[in-house]
Amino acid sequence: MRKLLLAVLVALPLVTLAAAPETVTLDVLKMTCAVCPITVKKSLEKLPGVSAVKVDFDEKTAIVTFDPAITNSEALTAATTNAGYPSSVHK
Which residue, 3, 15, 49, 62, has most beta carbons within 10 Å? Predict the structure, then answer.
């Protein structure tokens, strides 16, 4: 029985064992020029586990898709804050 269980576990794709990606919208303060969204995007993309970032200058938001097994929303807001653009999770 153990060998069968082990064989099944080994046969499963590793993707099924990974956590499902999460997407969060951040409200990003202090974006006042065309370069600001680029800086915010780069600060978020540097974080391990972040797979996609879309920054909207007009709405002052960043939509971030990430692996919750690797990072979290607190790390995302810290990254933008450290880049000079404080943010919070959109409610």
Answer: 62
